[in-house]
Amino acid sequence: MGIFAVGLFASYFMEEFNMTFTDQLHEQAATLWQQSFDHPFIQQISAGTLPKAVFRFYLLQDRYYLSEFGKLHEQVASQVTNPKGRTFLLEGAQGLKDGEIAVRKGFFETLQISKQEIAQTPVAPTAYNYVNHMYAELYRGTPGRAIAGLLPCYWLYNEIGKRLIAAGSPDALYQQWIETYDSDGYTDSVQKMIALTNETAARTDADERTAMAASFVRSSAYELAFWQMAMDRQSWQAG
């Protein structure tokens, strides 16, 4: 079945079953997301047994990722024509600086991660490749593909937070991490990003929606790889 035929089938399926574009994306990435839910990193966060050395490594790599994630918001915003979407993306970039990155700073202080350690920690291959994937979706692709590539970071973390919040974690630091992604404010941002993705998809053709879906699935795969990167304390060295 060609790309055009896939697009027609997807459009029919969405209309027939009242599915949004992002519902379709969610289904396409469901196996990857389930692997994230079941990953030892997430399960050990919930159990409170994740080694702090692993969490420290994750935070250091996530600091790099979030810094670039915020820059991507600003660069995508400069290319979108939807004023509402542009405003949301710029607010998201500022929110990262004021909110999530600030929370990470608190984690750094608790774990005594110094500025020197931050400066001397190399970016791990998976973090480097994930960020490069999103820049490629923007500069070798389109703003719509970049938006689809940004969405899993919002949405998957929110679903993880909602799944873990009921049981919580016996470790106070990990409980704080869980609560970050189940908050009303964070959930509201996720819903706005989902809406922006759907609005963007509605203004384009079947081929572009197929490319947006590929970007979303690739980002979902990188999210899964990010957990394992932390468990392995991944480096550029072989072996």
Give me the secondary-structure topology.
Blueprint: H1 3-16, H2 21-28, H3 30-38, H4 40-47, H5 52-77, H6 83-110, H7 115-120, H8 125-139, H9 143-165, H10 172-180, H11 184-202, H12 206-232
> What kind of sheet is the major sheet?
none
CATH-assigned fold name? Heme Oxygenase, Chain A
Morphology call: globular
Using the CA coordinates, give the radius of gyration.
18 Å
Task: State the total count of DSSP E strands.
Answer: 0
CA-CA gap between termini: 41 Å
How large is the count of helical segments? 12
The secondary structure category is: mainly alpha
Q: Helical residue percent?
A: over 70%
CATH architecture annotation: Up-down Bundle
Poorly predicted regions are: 1-14
Tally of domains: 1
What percentage of amino acids are in beta strands?
under 5%
CATH homologous superfamily designation: Heme oxygenase-like
Tell me the name of the CATH class.
Answer: Mainly Alpha
Order of helices and strands: HHHHHHHHHHHH
Mean pLDDT: 90
